[in-house]
Design a protein that fits this description.
It is built from 4 helices and no strands. It is an all-alpha fold and 70 residues long.
Length: 70
């Protein structure tokens, strides 16, 4: 069961990406997610895109706040 609990496929990893970025995963699930990301270049690329998108959105929010004095 221990080995099965650690296994994660791409579908499950993609479903957990937002929760991972938000720090919402339990330790075991986080470990399985990170193990998958280290071995799957497609999911790693998707995670990097998500992180970059969130950074861009945060930057845009800051720029809008400055421009409109929000």
């Amino acid at each position: 069961h221990e080995r099965r609990a650690r296994f994660m496929d791409c579908k499950k990893a993609k479903n957990l990406m937002s929760a991972y970025v938000d720090g919402m995963l339990e330790n075991a699930e986080k470990s399985a997610f990170e193990a998958h990301i280290h071995t799957c270049k497609d999911c790693k690329r998707e995670l990097d895109l998500l992180k970059n998108t969130l950074i861009l959105l945060a930057d845009a929010k800051i720029l809008c706040a400055r421009k409109f004095h929000i």
